[in-house]
Amino acid sequence: MTALRLIHAAAVLTAAGSLAATLGTGLADRGIALAFGVLIAVGELTRWSDDEVRQAAPIGAAGSLAYALLGADAGRPTGQHAAQVVTVVLTATVLGTVPHIWSGRTPTLDHLARRVLTVGFAAVCFQPLYSQGLFASWSGPAYALLLVALSGLTGLCDAVLAAALAHSRTRWPFAPLLREELRGLLGIGSAVGATGAVIALAVAVAGLWALPVFCLPLLLTQLSVRRYAAVRATYRQTIASLARATEIAGCTPTGHARRVAALSLAVGRDLGLAGGELTVLEYAALMHDIGQLSLVDPVPAGATAGLPAAEQRRIALLGGAVVRQTGVDAAVAVVVERQADPCREQPLAARIVRAVNAYEEKTRDTGPEGPLRALEELRLAAAGDYAPEVVEALARVLARPRDWGRTAPAPGEGRRTALSDPVPGWVTHG
């Protein structure tokens, strides 16, 4: 938790120092500070759950960035300094989250820490140099490019902070988490950065009336992204319902597919998968047993790991055919079809599903020694039936506290939903 504590401590020190400096010097351009504070607070009020999309409050984030990069109001230089920017943004953000706290949807400290540090970074990069007149000769495209470049650097700073916080909390590899955050910058993140720069430019020319006008496109984007997130959630629920068909038919034990999906995602994260790769892995893990619906004689307890290789491949091919008929992404069908192939010929997602499914079956209805015995059996069979790197990743995941039970976000999303069924034989080592 070292990185987590350092980031939170840095945010607290930044906020405390900014508040003290602002109280000492007083609030400059109170009308401008109030207008941006209201915009940021409204953005926080209209935010949605952090579980739905990566950027939960885009209007608040864009307003914060615009205030940090604001140099003039209708042609008149403004007088806010970096400390005032951080103070106003933090105060407005906290006020905007009060209704969410009242309703039980408490924003995390990570959200506030990222907001304080990213806004502080942008303000420190821009406000001192602007107040010294270093940008006085910059005009037209050059000044606009400057603001765009600073907004881009701020976005990169936020992505690094988000990945570091996620790594500290989950112990997932940092590099895939950072790639996922950077990929998210191409979506709503780029819209937030561009809107922040445009608002700062527009206010410099047209005054504060530019705030509602130039926030409208981002509001429409926010509504579109929210609708897209709802569609993705419905699609995910449909996949989960299809996966339950084998349980309803009595082919597999209750919760088997969800347990395999949860543990597969944790192993995939450990091996560096991210974004769309994790989504494919999740769907394939949920539907890995769906081929059993085509069998005349069900497999006892749905335990396919102990069947002959030819029979496993036949069931896998049947499952792939069923998945293709459902209209799910063809990549999911490929993973389902190839989960029984020789491990050297399998894609990584198929290797993961095969090993995790075998582990879950081997630890079913076993005592305290079951998990260790199952891992030992998988290690002995590694390089033949199971990929050694997948088995070792599985062992690492099982040795951690249970922080992995979340589904993967689709590309550009930050949605994570807890899977309630525990994996048998969860091992912790303090």
Explain this structure.
With 430 residues, the chain is mainly alpha-helical. The protein is built from 16 helices and 2 strands. It has helices spanning 2-25, 30-45, 58-68, 82-102, 109-131, 141-170, 174-206, 210-243, 245-248, 256-270, 276-286, 309-326, 330-338, 348-362, 370-381, 388-398, and strands spanning 72-73, 76-77. A two-stranded antiparallel sheet has the order 1-2. Helix 10 (256-270) packs antiparallel against helix 11. The longest helix has 34 residues, at 210-243. It is elongated and about 80 Å long. Residues 403-430 have low confidence and may be disordered.
Record the SSE blueprint.
Layout: H1 2-25, H2 30-45, H3 58-68, E1 72-73, E2 76-77, H4 82-102, H5 109-131, H6 141-170, H7 174-206, H8 210-243, H9 245-248, H10 256-270, H11 276-286, H12 309-326, H13 330-338, H14 348-362, H15 370-381, H16 388-398
Helix pairs in contact: 1-4, 1-5, 1-6, 2-3, 2-4, 3-4, 3-5, 3-7, 3-8, 4-5, 5-6, 6-7, 7-8, 10-11, 10-14, 10-16, 11-13, 11-14, 12-13, 14-15
Short description:
The chain has helices at residues 2-25, 30-45, 58-68, 82-102, 109-131, 141-170, 174-206, 210-243, 245-248, 256-270, 276-286, 309-326, 330-338, 348-362, 370-381, 388-398, and strands at residues 72-73, 76-77.
